[in-house]
Automatic annotation (TrEMBL):
Gene3D superfamilies (UniProt xref): alpha/beta hydrolase
Protein's name according to its UniProt entry: Acetyl esterase/lipase
Residue stretches making up the Alpha/beta hydrolase fold-3 domain: 87-290
Keywords: Hydrolase
Native species: Asanoa ferruginea
Single annotated GO MF: hydrolase activity
Transport recorded as keyword: no
InterPro entries found in the cross-reference section: AB_hydrolase_3, AB_hydrolase_fold, GDXG_lipolytic_enzyme
The keyword Hydrolase belongs to this UniProt entry's keyword annotation: yes
Length: 316
C-alpha cells in the first residue's frame, strides 16, 4: 500500500475502497506522474490525447488564428450555431504540457455541451517561459475577445474564463488580474480541479502523495518549472490572494482523490465568505484527470455538467 493512500483507502477483496470501480480498472494504464523532463512529458500527453475521441463538430465552425500580442498567441475558436456567450479556455498540463491539439477533445466537447464560443488558448509553457508568461498570454486573449466580441458573434458582457488543472489556476489568476487592473469584465469562472496553491500544505496535498496521474512530486515539479523559485504573487498562485471580493461568480469542481482537492474547497469557501456566488461540486470516487475516461458514468456526468453550468452562466 502506498503511503499516500493509507489514510483514505485500503485494498479490500482486490480493489481500492473509495475509488469509483469504473475508473479503478484504468489506473494501471495511467503513466507515472513525472515532469522532470518536460519534452518527454509533452510527448506523453500528446499520446494520451490522441487516444481520446473528439466529439463530432459538424455544424460548428472551428478556426485557428493568432491573437496579436507580444508575442502573438495561438488560439483555436469553436463557434456553435447561435452562440450568445464565450469562454477563454485554458488547458491543463501543470503549466508545462499541453497545446491546442491535446485540448481539442475537451474544448470541442465544452463548446458542444454549452453552446458557447470556446476560445482555446495555447499559452507559453514553462520552464522555457516562466510566470507571468502564461498569464500574460491569457490576459491578451481575454482583452482581444472583449474587443472583438461582435466579430465573434457574442455579447461582450457574456465572456467567461475557465480551465482544467493548471489552466483552472490560470483562469482564477486571470480573474484576479482583470479585477485589479480594471480590465475586461468577466461574467463567470469555470474552474475544474484548479491548481491554486504552490505551498502544498493542505490535508489532501499532504495525504494524496501518490495518487493516479497527480503525485506530490509532480505537483512540486510543476510549480518549480512555472515559478522558477520563491514567488508569493497571487497572480502566480491564486490561493495566496488576501482579498477575493469583487470576483466573478464561480463553479469549482474537485476530485475526491486529488492533491488539489482541499485547496480548491478552501478557495471556494473563501470566495463565498467574500460575497462571491459559488457552486462547488466534489466528485466522489474520482481522481485528478479521471474524467478523460469517457466510458465511466461519472466522467460522462462531469463533462456534461461543465457544459450545462457554462450554458446557464452565460444565458442571463
Amino acid at each position: 500500500m502506498r503511503d499516500g493512500w493509507r489514510m483514505t483507502s485500503s485494498r479490500m477483496l482486490g480493489r481500492m475502497v473509495g475509488m469509483d470501480p469504473e475508473l479503478e480498472v484504468f489506473v494501471p494504464l495511467f503513466p507515472r506522474g513525472d515532469l522532470s523532463d518536460p519534452i518527454t512529458a509533452r510527448k506523453g500527453l500528446m499520446g494520451l490525447a490522441t487516444s481520446v475521441p473528439a466529439p463530432d463538430t459538424t455544424g460548428m465552425e472551428v478556426e485557428d488564428l493568432m491573437v496579436p500580442a507580444d508575442p502573438d498567441v495561438p488560439v483555436r475558436i469553436y463557434r456553435p450555431q447561435h452562440a450568445e456567450g464565450a469562454i477563454v479556455w485554458l488547458h491543463g498540463g501543470g503549466f508545462v504540457m499541453g497545446n491546442l491539439e491535446t485540448e481539442h477533445p475537451w474544448a470541442a466537447r465544452l463548446a458542444g455541451n454549452s453552446g458557447a464560443v470556446v476560445i482555446s488558448v495555447a499559452y507559453r509553457l514553462a520552464p522555457e517561459h516562466r510566470f507571468p508568461a502564461a498569464l500574460d498570454d491569457a490576459y491578451a486573449v481575454l482583452t482581444w475577445a472583449f474587443e472583438h466580441a461582435q466579430a465573434l458573434g457574442v455579447d461582450p458582457e457574456r465572456i467567461a474564463v475557465g480551465g482544467h488543472s493548471a489552466g483552472g489556476g490560470l483562469a482564477a489568476a486571470l480573474a484576479l488580474s482583470a479585477r485589479d487592473e480594471q480590465g475586461p469584465p468577466i461574467r463567470f469562472q469555470l474552474l475544474n480541479q484548479p491548481q491554486l496553491d504552490d505551498r502544498q500544505e493542505t490535508w489532501s496535498a499532504r495525504t494524496f502523495t501518490d495518487t493516479p496521474w497527480m503525485t506530490r512530486g509532480k505537483v512540486t515539479q510543476a510549480w518549480g518549472h512555472y515559478l522558477g523559485g520563491p514567488n508569493s504573487s497571487p497572480y502566480a498562485a491564486p490561493a495566496r490572494a488576501e482579498d477575493l471580493s469583487g470576483l466573478p461568480p464561480a463553479y469549482i469542481a474537485t476530485a475526491e482523490l486529488c492533491p488539489n482537492r482541499d485547496e480548491d474547497i478552501v478557495y471556494a469557501l473563501r470566495l463565498l465568505q467574500s460575497g462571491v456566488p459559488v457552486e462547488l461540486h466534489q466528485w466522489a470516487g474520482t481522481f485528478h484527470g479521471s474524467q478523460a475516461i469517457l466510458s465511466a458514468e461519472v466522467s460522462q456526468r462531469q463533462n456534461a455538467e461543465l457544459g450545462a453550468v457554462l450554458r446557464r452562466a452565460l444565458a442571463y
